[in-house]
Amino acid sequence: MLGPLFSVAVGGALGASLRYLTGVAIARVMGQTAFPLGILTVNVAGSFLMGVFIAVAAQRGLSHLSPLLATGFLGGFTTFSAFSLEAVTLYERGAVGLAALYVTLSVCLSIAGLVAGLWVARGMLA
Description:
Layout: H1 2-30, H2 37-60, H3 66-77, H4 80-92, H5 96-125
Helix pairs in contact: 1-2, 1-3, 2-3, 2-5, 4-5
């Protein structure tokens, strides 16, 4: 039990750190915006990477890495708790249109990212 738990913890720490650094980098490049680009970026990119990992793990018998990579790293990198907070914050600030756009883009692009990751990885493995 401690082996997988340790893997989740290490992966989560690395993923969360990378999420933070991605947000900082995007803020430096794009400047501070009312739209939460950092969280949107990590949710879409993380969903794509989840698709790639799941396809590769299934093909290559690497599911034992799921606690480290899927649950830990990608779970820490992407976060819909932060997504939810950003959406509610936009709404509470009166930016209802931006909140709706953010929710729609986050959900649709993250699902599209996962499908694209599966498609790319499966194509590479075929």
